[in-house]
Amino acid sequence: MFTPCPTERSRVIADRVERFVRDVVVPYEADPRCTAHGPTSELIDEMRAKARAAGVMTPHILPDGSHLTQLETAAVLKRSGLSPLGPVAVNTMAPDEGNMFLLGKVGTPAQKQRFLEPLVRGEARSAFFMTEPAEEGGAGSDPSMLQTTATQDGGDWMIRGRKKFITGAEGARVGIVMARTGDGEHAQATMFLVDLPHPAIRLERVIDTIDSSMPGGHAQILLDDLRVPADQVLGEVNEGFRYAQVRLSPARLSHCMRWFGGTVRADEIARAYATTRKAFGKLLIDHEGVGFMLAENLIDLQQAALMIDWCAGVLDGGAAGTAESSMAKVAVSEALYRVADRCVQIMGGLGVSRDTIVEQILREVRAFRIYDGPTEVHKWSLAKKIKRDTLAGTPAR
């Protein structure tokens, strides 16, 4: 089901990751330390110790600190996603993977040593503080609505505001906070690095959500006079929106990679069920209603794999990839949801039970259609690009 690895080094890493996830991580799926708000810190540490011993910790970042290409990363992250716990165990999980990418691109040498290196070693987790409560008019899919403010106070910055749906905030040691630092016709924002936990960063609650794979869940946070020194500004002041795109384009694609692996696993389980379970005198797969669903799964998965690899190639070519990652996010998230939904349907009562991982994969992929931008927001953005390019006479791509 996986497309061929683009290089020999990516094949070796991907094969090693797949063996580790299937043999070591999958048995943990029934562990009681998998909670409604993600695996506990104890479980994460236990799995990561085994990942280090197996040589698969943070496999997309090489020992010299360089990264695999996006196309190579796709081969590895797809396989890490064969279990919802896989990316957590091998340190390819959101938001850490995207935060590591951004820190590697923008951070100073001192910031990388202090904040990035513990993440790469899998000794710390991180959180990205951007989304805000919709009921307070805060930023969601439209970052320009940012309400959290950062004002200079001597040589420091003082940050005030509230954040919501902050993945992994509980238990994280590294935070990237996005706050408004300029007003006027064009809103401006800046990113700040903070150590966690911090007394001025108050966890108000962990929100109950449909998904349950993210360590720490999704929290609502109060930033109450958070003082940040100037040397913890990430990149340049007032460049936060630009850096958000640097992070989000590959991060959207990484979500596609990971959940592709999870949906492949769901399809494997549904195939095994349909080729062993009988009804009305024959195997389920021999009934067209079931056989056709598995055929549609095959088509959707192959198309999703090609879309992921195409977008990865665009990013490797040096393009910003904003439109391409939007296309991939829409096409892949919708396709994977169709696959997961069919798997549940094929398996009937077993599919909606927690006797297999299939029902969780359905829940996780349903959430994927919303986070990092709902399908409709990406379509709207693409429609604007179509209009702009058409009026400018730019050839269609």
Topology:
Elements: H1 8-25, E1 34-35, E2 38-39, H2 41-54, H3 70-80, H4 86-90, H5 96-106, H6 109-120, E3 126-129, E4 149-153, E5 156-167, E6 174-182, E7 188-195, E8 201-207, E9 218-229, E10 233-234, H7 240-274, E11 278-279, E12 282-283, H8 288-316, H9 322-347, H10 349-352, H11 358-368, H12 375-392
Parallel strand pairs: 3-6
Antiparallel strand pairs: 1-2, 4-5, 5-9, 6-7, 7-10, 8-9, 11-12
Could you say which structural class the secondary elements and strand pairing correspond to? Answer: alpha+beta
Report mean pLDDT, rounded to a whole number: 95
What is the N-to-C succession of helices and strands? HEEHHHHHEEEEEEEEHEEHHHHH
The CATH class name of the largest domain reads Mainly Alpha
Helix proportion range: 40-55%
Biggest sheet statistics: 4 strands, mixed
Low-confidence stretches: none
CATH topology of the largest domain: Butyryl-CoA Dehydrogenase, subunit A, domain 3
What is the CATH homologous superfamily assignment of the largest domain? Answer: Butyryl-CoA Dehydrogenase, subunit A, domain 3
Task: Describe the protein in words.
There is one protein chain. A hairpin with a 2-residue loop joins strand 11 (278-279) and strand 12. This protein has 3 domains: 8-93, no CATH class; 126-234, Butyryl-CoA Dehydrogenase, subunit A, domain 2 (Beta Barrel), CATH 2.40.110.10; 241-392, Butyryl-CoA Dehydrogenase, subunit A, domain 3 (Up-down Bundle), CATH 1.20.140.10. The chain is globular and about 80 Å long. The strands form 4 sheets. It has a 4-stranded mixed sheet with strand order 3-6-7-10, with helices on one face. The protein has 397 residues and is of the alpha+beta class. It has 12 helices and 12 strands. The mean pLDDT is 95.
